[in-house]
Amino acid sequence: MRYAVLGGGKRVRPALVYATATALQLPLSAVDAVACAIELIHVYSLVHDDLPAMDNDDLRRGRPTCHKAFDEATAILAGDSLQVLAFEILASDPGLPNDASIRLRLVQLLAAASGTHGMAGGQALDLAALNRQLSINEIETMHARKTGALIRASVMMAAACAPGIGENVTRALHAYATEIGLAFQIQDDLLDVEGDPRLLGKAVGADQALNKPTYPSIAGLDASRERVRELHDRALRALQAPGLSSTPLIAISNWLLHRKS
Questions:
Q1: Helices 167-194 and 221-238 meet at what angle, rounded to 10?
Q2: What per-residue confidence (pLDDT) applies to 242?
Q3: Which pLDDT score, from 0 to 100, does residue 244 have?
Q4: Which pLDDT band holds residue 49 (cuts at 50, 70, 90)?
Q5: What is the pLDDT of residue 210?
Q6: What is the Cα–Cα distance from 14 to 16, expressed in whole angstroms?
Q7: What pLDDT is recorded for position 1?
Q8: Can you say whether residue 56 is alpha, beta or left, with left for phi > 0 and alpha for psi between -120 and 50 degrees?
Q9: Which residues of 220-242 are buried (b: 16+ CB within 10 A; e: fewer)?
Q10: What is the pLDDT of residue 211?
Q11: Neighbouring residues of 1: CB distance < 8 A, sequence distance ≥ 6
Q12: Domain limits, the chain
């Protein structure tokens, strides 16, 4: 579990948790548990996605994947344990609000983002799409669930910790997170085509080798880059709601647009 969680990575989802807290003028310590829970769920999904029955990857974050470093059974159990640890933290961490309804909301948001209508369902769509041609709408639906749901939960769980947050701010954050979640995955698809393996910490071309439909394979590279820019612009427009100090969230969207890893 330590090997999988502490072995590098971009920590995009925890960064979004903290950026949202800053935008809402919450102390960062108030969302530490949320940031940890989100990252644990993300890493468990990577451990399981790398398995031979899924994406069959040998490298993750520049090192052997968990099942290569240990074995498949250990990797499955490590992923299982990371998943339940995330919910244990939300239930018991003393830094979160004492209000049981808030903790319940956090559990609900993370579970929904992780399950059949979120990350796991998106991965199922991804596996079912091998050797098939998808439409743009189908690929965006898959991305919105596989990657976008947990990114959106990162923002909305931090927002759930803010007392008295207005409905207009909640809608703005939801819209922002939805846009950057899709942009992040399209950028990932682009990097699998034209990225530098030394920066990515993993091999490129895996999607093409598996005959997996991706945004660039359907829309082309130029249209994919344009779609990322469009989503970035829409995310920034969403942040113009009154009462939202959006600078850190803008910075993350800017990074997503230009990232190389």
A1: 160
A2: 77
A3: 78
A4: very high
A5: 66
A6: 5
A7: 97
A8: left
A9: eeeebbebbeebbebbbebbebe
A10: 72
A11: 78, 81, 82, 85
A12: 2-258
* Tokens read off for 55: 């994406």
What is the separation, in whole angstroms, between the first and last Cα of the chain?
23
* Token pair recorded at residue 229: 């820019």
In three-state form (DSSP H/G/I as H, E/B as E, the rest C), the secondary structure along the chain is: CHHHHCCCCCCHHHHHHHHHHHHCCCCHHHHHHHHHHHHHHHHHHHHHHCCCCCCCCCEECCEECHHHHCCHHHHHHHHHHHHHHHHHHHHHCCCCCCCHHHHHHHHHHHHHHHCCCCHHHHHHHHHHCCCCCCCHHHHHHHHHHHHHHHHHHHHHHHHHCCCCCCHHHHHHHHHHHHHHHHHHHHHHHHHHHHCCHHHHCCCCCHHHHCCCCCHHHHHCHHHHHHHHHHHHHHHHHHCCCCCCCCHHHHHHHHHHHHCCC
Quick one: 2-258 is in which CATH superfamily? Answer: Farnesyl Diphosphate Synthase (1.10.600.10)
Q: Which residue has the tokens 């909301």?
A: 105
Average pLDDT over residues 109-129: 95
Give me the sign of the Cα torsion angle 198, 187, 120, 43. Answer: positive
Which position has the token pair 């090997």? 3
The count of other CB atoms within 10 Å of the CB of residue 261 is 12
Closest CA to 66 of 76, 53, 54, 80: 76
Residue 31 pLDDT level (bands cut at 50, 70, 90): very high
CA–CA separation, 239 vs 171, rounded Å?
Answer: 10
